[in-house]
Amino acid sequence: MDYGLKGQVAIVTGSTSGIGLGLAEALAQHGVNVVINGLGDRDAIEATRAGLSARNGVEVLYHDADMTQPHRIADMVSSTRNAFGRLDILVNNAGVQHVAPVDEFPTEWWDRIIGINLSSAFHASKAAIPPMRAAGHGRIVNIASAHGLVASPFKSAYVAAKHGVIGLTKTIALEVAQQGITANAICPGYVKTPLVEGQIADQAKARGISEEAVIKDVILAAQPTKQFVTVEQLAGLLLYLASDAGASVNGAALPVDGGWTAA
Predict the structure, then answer these.
(1) Active-site residue among 62, 158, 190, 240?
(2) In the chain, how many domains are there?
(3) Do 185 and 212 lie in a common domain?
(4) Per-residue pLDDT tens for 225-247?
């Protein structure tokens, strides 16, 4: 399917692994030049960058912006504009997680999760909106979570941040609605990524049960399909929202969760 995205430019935060890398791959497959961002071994990141570019015949750059540093986030956006002369798509995907009861939740982890999962989306959007407004076109897609719509125990910071992402999305959507820009949030259920695999271990410790029981009775118990969401399914929605076909979808929080939030 041709989404009409060839030649556009996207930034995908938190895209050196997991969901973000899958979304960057999907955009590149449709002719979008991509700036990836994230942490990890520099040699491994360079291999990832080069592979994305070679497989898809697009230009792929890497920016090492720390998502807790507003000035680095702004530099990532300005560097993208300097390199390509445009910015069409911003995907705010970067995220971290920590699981603990509220009264035992480390303050430093609260601050880190709110900073990376919520505040970074604000800072990146703040920097991206002016060039998008000047071009009369832009797409901001925030990767929220089913936890932006409902809560689970032991995830106070993550749930608060993801609820905040949806509120931020709606506010941006209203502000830019007449400027050719849309802002939407994708709300995945559980996707089998390294982050979720870490959550399985953390939940097992917090609840005092086995990892197998966490998968069966805690994680997939929330999803009526009893199946993990795939990155490819999230990518399909991203491509639609980024295309002209999605131009009238604005300010939406769209669940991709196997029916989790339907109850």
Answers:
(1) 158
(2) 2
(3) no
(4) 888 999 999 999 999 999 999 99
